[in-house]
Design brief:
The complex is a heterodimer of chains A (435) and B (270). Chain A is α/β, with parallel strands linked by helices. In chain A, the strands form three sheets. Chain A has a six-stranded mixed beta sheet, with helices on both faces. Chain B has twelve helices and nine strands. Chain B has a nine-stranded parallel beta sheet. In chain B, helix 2 crosses helix 4 and helix 10 packs across helix 12. The longest helix of chain B has 17 residues. The two termini of chain B are 26 Å apart. The relative contact order of chain B is 0.18. The mean pLDDT of chain B is 95. The chains are: A alpha/beta (435), B alpha/beta (270). At the A-B interface, strand 2, helix 3, helix 10, strand 11 and strand 12 of A face helix 3, helix 5 and strand 6 of B. Bound molecules: pyridoxal-5'-phosphate.
Chain lengths: 435, 270
C-alpha cells in the first residue's frame, strides 16, 4: 500500500511538472519528516523547558512513547478505537458548491477544486479525539490513574472527558473563565461526561492561563496524573506524539485523494491554533515537494491592531509552556494576550514544528480576521450544508483569499477540523441575532 | 570566593543555616522594592532572592502569581529589575543577590545580554525555573561566562539516576524544592527533607538550601537543623501584600525567621 502510493506520488509529481528524481532525493536524503531530534528540537525550536519536578516524568513519557511505537498491541488497540469508537476514516469530500462559489470570484480558468477532510464527523465533533485516544492509551500504559487537560474552545476538553469516561479515569479540565463563559455548551458536555471543569481566573482567563493552571496541577500530582495536552505544543515529546496521533488525518487524506483523483493535491489548508490539526494534515505530505501548504492563524481584529493571535506573523521566538517557539510578547519577554473570536485559536504561541516549518519556508502562514472568518462560516453553512467550527472557518477564509492563484484543474484539501455547533452562540452574538 | 560561597562558609562556621529571603521585584511597585530589600537585610536575611516577574509564572502558587501580576501592572520592566539590583549592590556590597524567574524574560534579548547585564548589576546567581539541566545550553554558558552561578533546582522527583545530570554545571548552591508542587503549598515532612538533603549532599559539595512551603519560624528552624539554607518566599510576599508593601512588615517577619534559624541548632548535638 505504501509502495503503491509512493509510485502514484512520483507519477503525479511528474504531471505537475516536478521531477520524480527530485522528489526521490527529498524523501531519502533530506526528509522534512525526521524531526525532532532526540532532545525534541525542531531546528532551534521545541525542547523541554519545564520545571525540574516534571522533568523525570517527561523523560518517562518519552521512553514509554518509544516503547508503545514498537508495540503491535498498542497499534492494534489504537486502530480498533479509531475505527469503532472515533468512526475513522473520516471522509474526504468534494465541496462542490463551495468550489463553484469561490471559483466565481476568480478570473476565468482559476479557482481550484476544493476537498474537505471531514474531521468534524469524528466522535465528539473535531480532530481533537484522535490525539486523546492515543494519549489515554499512553496514560494507561504508564499506570496513571488521573487525567488532566487544558481547553480553549472546549473541544479538547470534551474529547478528553470522553476518553476519560470511556476508560473509567477521573478527569479534571482547566478552562479559562472567559472561555467557560463563551463555550457553555461544551462546559455542560464535559460535566455530563463526568469531568470536573475548573474555571481559571488568572491572566486573560483563556487558553494560555488554562495551560498554566494545568501545569501547576501536574507539578503537584506527578505521581498519579497524566496531562493530555491538546495541541502539538508543550515539552518534548508532546509536540511529536500529538503530531503522530493526528497524522492519521494526512495519511488518510493522501490515500483518499489518490483514490479520488489519482494524484496528490496542490495545496493543503488548515487553521492553526497550537497547530495540531494542521500538522496532522501536513506532516505526511512534507516531503511531497509539489504540495503547497497554507496555515491560517487568527488575525483577530486585524494585524494592524494588538488584538490578534497570529504568533508567526506577529510574534518572535521565545520560551513558554515547555518549548521554544514563536510567541506574542513584548521586548521584555512578557507574554501578550491573544485575541480571536475563535476560542480554539486564542493562544499566543504555536507548536514548535510550525515555527520550524515557517523558518525554513516549507509552509506559508497567513492571518484571517474575526470578520473574515464569520463570513466564511456563513458561506460554508449555506453552500455545503455544513456548520463549521469557527477555527476551520478561518481556514476557509484563508483559502478564499487565494483561490485566484490556483487553476481550476488544481486540487486543494482543507481540513474541516470541527463542527460549529459549539459556536452558534458566539456567531449569533457577533451577527447581532438573539437565540 | 564569590559572595555566595563566602556567605554559606560564614553561616556554616557559625553552625547555622543561611536564611534566603524571597521578594518579588516591583511588588507592589518598583519604587517600593529597594526599601523592602533593605528592611529584609536588616531583619537578618543572609541571601536575597529577587523574583523577576513574568506574565505566566507556571511554577508559582496564588501568592507569588498575584505578586508577579501586581508588579507588571505597576509597570515593572526588566530594566527596573536590573536597576533594583544595581542599587542593592551599592548599598549592600556583601549580601548575595540571586535572581529567580522564568526563561522567557531572561532570554528575550539573548542569554549573553541578560548574563552581562545581571553581572554588571552585581547579581551573584540566577535560578531559572523552566530551564532544566537538559536545556542548560539556553542560558548556562552565558551565565558562567559572566561569572554568575547558575543555581539548579532538585526536587522530590529527582531520582538518583538523574541527580548527576542536575549537579553537572550547578554552582552557588543547590536549591532543594521540598514538595512536588508550586510555591506556597504545604511543607513536606521534616524527616523526608532530612533524607533528601543527605542524598543530595552525598552527590555534591555545594551548600543545599531548602524551600517551598516554609512559612513559620518553627518550620524554618526544623529545616535549618538539617540543611545549609532555608528559603522563605510566599510567606514574605503574603506579609508584604497584606501590609500594602510596608517594609516593616517584611522586616518583622524576617527577624522572627532569622532568630529561629540562628537558634535552631543550639542545644542540638552536632
Ligand atoms: C475544531 C478546532 N479546530 C482547530 C483548533 C485549533 O487547534 P489546533 O491548532 O491544535 O488544531 C481547535 C481548538 O480547540 C478546534 O476545536
Amino acid at each position: 500500500m505504501a509502495q503503491a502510493s509512493r509510485d502514484d506520488v512520483s507519477t503525479s509529481l511528474d504531471t505537475n511538472g516536478y521531477g520524480a528524481k527530485r522528489h526521490h532525493v527529498m524523501t531519502l536524503a533530506n526528509s522534512l519528516r525526521s524531526q525532532p531530534d532526540a532532545q525534541g528540537h525542531f531546528g532551534e525550536f521545541g525542547g523541554r523547558y519545564v520545571a525540574e519536578t516534571l522533568m523525570p516524568l517527561v523523560l518517562a513519557l518519552d521512553a514509554e512513547y518509544r516503547a508503545a511505537k514498537q508495540d503491535p498491541a498498542f497499534a492494534a488497540e489504537l486502530a480498533g478505537l479509531m475505527t469503532h469508537y472515533v468512526g475513522r476514516p473520516s471522509p474526504l469530500y468534494y465541496a462542490e458548491r463551495l468550489t463553484e462559489t469561490l471559483r466565481a470570484t476568480a478570473p476565468a480558468g482559476m479557482g481550484p477544486k476544493i476537498y474537505f477532510k471531514r474531521e468534524e464527523l469524528n466522535h465528539t465533533g473535531a480532530h481533537k479525539i484522535n490525539n486523546c485516544i492515543g494519549q489515554i492509551l499512553l496514560a494507561i500504559r504508564m499506570g496513571k490513574t488521573r487525567i488532566i487537560a487544558e481547553t480553549g474552545a472546549g473541544q479538547h476538553g470534551v474529547a478528553t472527558a470522553t476518553v476519560a469516561a470511556r476508560f473509567g479515569l477521573p478527569c479534571t479540565i482547566f478552562m479559562g473563565a472567559k472561555d467557560v463563559e463563551r463555550q457553555q455548551p461544551n462546559v455542560f458536555r464535559m460535566k455530563l461526561l463526568g469531568a470536573e471543569v475548573t474555571p481559571v481566573t488568572s491572566g486573560a482567563q483563556t487558553l494560555k492561563d488554562a495551560m498554566n493552571e494545568a501545569l501547576r496541577d501536574w507539578v503537584a500530582n506527578v505521581h498519579d496524573t497524566f496531562y493530555i495536552i491538546g495541541t502539538a505544543a508543550g515539552p518534548h515529546p508532546y509536540p511529536e506524539l500529538v503530531r503522530d496521533f493526528q497524522s492519521v488525518i494526512g495519511t488518510e487524506a493522501k490515500a483518499q485523494i489518490l483514490e479520488a483523483e489519482g494524484r496528490l493535491p496542490d495545496l493543503l489548508v488548515a487553521s492553526v491554533g497550537g497547530g495540531s490539526n494542521a500538522i496532522g494534515l501536513f506532516h505526511p505530505f512534507l516531503d511531497d515537494e509539489g504540495v503547497e501548504m497554507l496555515g491560517i492563524e487568527a488575525a483577530g481584529k486585524g494585524m494592524h491592531t494588538a488584538e490578534h493571535a497570529a504568533s508567526l506573523s506577529g510574534g518572535r521566538p521565545g520560551v513558554l509552556h515547555g518549548n521554544r517557539t514563536y510567541l506574542l510578547q513584548d521586548e521584555d519577554g512578557q507574554i501578550s494576550e491573544a485575541h480571536s473570536i475563535s476560542a480554539g485559536l486564542d493562544y499566543p504561541g504555536i507548536g514548535p514544528e510550525h515555527s520550524w516549518l515557517h523558518e525554513i519556508g516549507r509552509v506559508r502562514y497567513e492571518g484571517v480576521t474575526d470578520m473574515e472568518a464569520l463570513d466564511a462560516f456563513q458561506l460554508c453553512c449555506r453552500t455545503e450544508g455544513i456548520i463549521p467550527a469557527l477555527e476551520c472557518a478561518h481556514a476557509i477564509a484563508g483559502l478564499a483569499h487565494r483561490v485566484h492563484e490556483y487553476r481550476a484543474d488544481q486540487i486543494v484539501i482543507l481540513n474541516l477540523s470541527g463542527r460549529g455547533d459549539k459556536d452558534i452562540f458566539t456567531v449569533a452574538d457577533a451577527l447581532g441575532a438573539k437565540i | 570566593m564569590t559572595r555566595l560561597a563566602t556567605t554559606f562558609a560564614r553561616t556554616a562556621s557559625e553552625n547555622r543555616a543561611a536564611l534566603v529571603a524571597f521578594v518579588t521585584a516591583g511588588d507592589p511597585s518598583p519604587a517600593h522594592t529597594p526599601a523592602i530589600l533593605d528592611a529584609i537585610v536588616a531583619g537578618g536575611a543572609d541571601v536575597i532572592e529577587l523574583g523577576m516577574p513574568f506574565t505566566d509564572p507556571m511554577a508559582d502558587g496564588p501568592a507569588i502569581q498575584a505578586a508577579n501580576l501586581r508588579a507588571l501592572a505597576a509597570g515593572l520592566r526588566t530594566a527596573d529589575v536590573l536597576a533594583i539590583a544595581t542599587g542593592f549592590r551599592q548599598r549592600h556590597p556583601d549580601v548575595p543577590l540571586v535572581l529567580m524567574g522564568y526563561a522567557n524574560p531572561m532570554l528575550s534579548r539573548g542569554p549573553e545580554w541578560f548574563a552581562q547585564a545581571a553581572a554588571k548589576a552585581g547579581v551573584d546567581g540566577v535560578i531559572c525555573v523552566d530551564i532544566p539541566a537538559e536545556e542548560d545550553a539556553a542560558l548556562g554558558p552565558a551565565l558562567r561566562a559572566a561569572g554568575i552561578d547558575p543555581v539548579r533546582l532538585a526536587t522530590p522527583t529527582t531520582d538518583t539516576a538523574r541527580l548527576p545530570a542536575v549537579l553537572a554545571g550547578a554552582s552557588g548552591f543547590l536549591y532543594y524544592v521540598s514538595v512536588a508542587g508550586i510555591t506556597g503549598m504545604q511543607q513536606a515532612a521534616t524527616g523526608s527533607i532530612e533524607e533528601a538533603v543527605a542524598r543530595l549532599k552525598a552527590g555534591t559539595d555545594l551548600p543545599v538550601a531548602v524551600g517551598f512551603g516554609v512559612r513559620t519560624p518553627e518550620q524554618a528552624a526544623a529545616v535549618a537543623r538539617v540543611a545549609d539554607g532555608v528559603v522563605v518566599g510566599s510567606a514574605i510576599v503574603d506579609a508584604l501584600a497584606k501590609a500594602g508593601g510596608d517594609p516593616e512588615a517584611g522586616r518583622a517577619l524576617v527577624a522572627g525567621l532569622a532568630a529561629a534559624v540562628r537558634e535552631a541548632r543550639m542545644g542540638v548535638a552536632a
